[in-house]
Amino acid sequence: MPNDPSLQELFRHEAQGIVDQLELLLDAGTPEAAAEGLRLAHTLKGLAAATEAKPLRDLARSLEAALDGFEPGDEARNQALLEAVDAARGLLEAAEGSGGVARDAAAALEGPAAGAPRHGVPQARQALWLRMRPSLRALGRSAQTRLKSLESGRDPRRRRRELGHELELWCAAAGLLGHTSAAASGLELANFLQQRAIPAASIPAAQALNGWFCAQIELDVPLDVPLGPEGLANMGGLRGSSSASERFGLAVEFPWPDVDLPADFVQAVDRACGGRRILDARPARPSSRFVRGILGLSTRRSRRRGDGAIQVSRQRLDRLLELAEELVALRVRTRRLATNLRQLATRPRDEATLDLSRLAHDASELDRELDDVARANQQAVLRARRVPLRGLYSLVRVTVREFLARHPDKACRLEVEGAENRVDKGVLDLMVDPVLQLVRNALQHGIAPREERRAGGKPEVARLRLTSKASPAGLLLEVSDDGEGLDLERLERAARRRGLLLLRGSRDALALAFAPGVTTAEAVTDDAGRGVGLASVLERVRALRGRLTFHSAPGEGTRARLAIPPAASTARVLLVRTGREVYAISLGAVLGVQEGQAPILAKRSVQLSQLVDPPKVPDRRRGMPLPAPREGERRRKDRVTVQIAAVGSRDPEEALHCMVDDVLRRDLVVVRPLGRRFAPPGIEGAALLGDGRIVLVVDVWRLHAGGQSRALELPRRTP
Amino acid sequence: MSARAQVLQVEAAGQRFGIEVASVRALDRVQRHVRLPGAPAYVAGVVEVQGQAVALIHLATRLGLTTVASAAGLPLVLIDSEEPVALAVDRILDLIEIGDALSEEDSGPMAKPTSACLGTWAGLRVLDAEAIVDGRALDPLPVSDTP
Asked: A621 lies in a domain?
């Protein structure tokens, strides 16, 4: 893996998210979930390849292959898939090693006969792949904290670390043995600690911890059950042994292949783990009939991926602190105002009138200042969330390097621009996949081998450009190459093979490149062949509420432009009324407001009421909905037109002219996303106004485009 | 469902239904809600509950017992699903504990599980909250065999 820590962090964060999603999808076990899983596995493979994580890449490839042939009801295969996902998780979190797990899981996936018992997926092992690790980690950390607090502080630092480490292991082991031996493992721990010359004070602590642990996992086990000399054994009739090592922590061996784990054991562990699976299990030796569960490895592993942590400069934190202090000061003034008002209420009415007027003025002033501080606070937080695109650019560089290393017949020079541009961290996380996919696509499909390029009169070394521009309207990111362009004929053939209805014309054929399952690749390789790459790009762009503009001309190369709007949960909006309804439009998208209806020659002119609530029966003569005034609506000429900028562009020529009945005011609101189940495309969320009203926040462009189809924009057909 | 479970009894279109308490996140009343254009007819709009904007489903309409009706002022049950959804009901009755297996004590058409109901217990139809709120098509409810 590349040495750049920020790159590794980005990779781990992204890959962890994918693995989490994969697990959920596999649990669902439906064909739709498998299709989505296939897309994610493809992405994981690409990410792993980009970061030179070869075992993970191999595992992701096996996952992809297994998901491609997914059939509901094939329990053995599903189980093997789940194991592979767990192995992927283990790989991601392991500081080193674990390649054997990946190979084992990959072998299980690629077994000869789906559904048949295969080596590496014994039933007992399946049972042990339960849901436990994250909670165990939490337990381990708590245990560590507890015992650390008991220490006198005289112990050398190294010993304290060891102690914490061992306690973490104990927690992991106790979780594994939860059914019958959790209590006994307390004593085991005490012995263990004693042998390691841990202060005697820690023994009662360990026993207390044991009780605490039992309470955590709701086990009804007496605390005085002794443990046999062979270590952690006799678990629900299952004989095993344990050993401790500095590197791997506590390893527990079970004779898996011939043993069914007792159901109550499984349930207890399941309960203990709160819905997660055990990290890791592998054959101890290739010829062994034992599988070793290794839990709670080195302390390095307990460092989580940071949950998308962001580095914030001290200057920005100071600004946030200043704003927080201002808020406190305003709160004091609000309280004083309230007190004055209460006192005023006790005085005779005439006498109070003058003071009331003064207090009303104070209240207005306070409101204005609160508004200013809230706005500044929002801006400061949003700025703190913004991170540079450097990490993404590094990933692209590695992707290119890695691809060229595997394809010595191709040569390419990467040109970049705009790495210093910043975007919201959440947006960046969602952008990694589509950008890498576009780059891989360019490398795989767009750029021909040197010989071919030379024969075609092009320089041997191809050019791949990654550029970005940031503006208040969002981020514009472009991936372009001087390659061969999309082969539309092959694309059409591929689409026909998939049984997709093909509309004539280059614009439609280009759109097919984004249809799931359509690929021009002749064979499935590490880089292409399943037709999920571009489809997944489009999906991510939709999730980002962005747009993808795609140009490709035979022999001239391909250009993909991603326009991503700024992300924020709070937003300044323009409140508009149409009929009886009030809607909010993101102020960042508004170019201007003018009285009267849109100019007759405006290219894109719409009525908001018609967009949010299209008429049931369109006027077929005119080919568009009848814009008849509805209840509460003004006549057309009295309306107000709001110019809405296209994503990534402030050009009024490209703006949408949206007619409403009234523009009410600007407001700062918190946008709450609506669930995906019922929110129609173009309804971005809801916001609660100060007077308690709820308004829908609309994306007029998406409403105009009729929803998600406009996430992709292709060049207009030329005669 | 096995063992004993707590069920919230609600009334919609004059009929009693049960919702597993485990599926309920909060109870509230529809204060202000806004219409959600383009949503299915049984979605009464969007309502604010506990600081969240959630879709509001009119239960009786969802079950096909009435046509679209206003949800203003009705009690609501916030269902704890992946994406929280509120159910507007006519009345919230009480909490009861039901036991053992559903439908064991009942017979007749109502006792049969449907896509909307997990089964019945002592004549009370226990709804499958997840099915109600996830937007899938539901079987028509069997006709009540008791007055």
From this structure: no
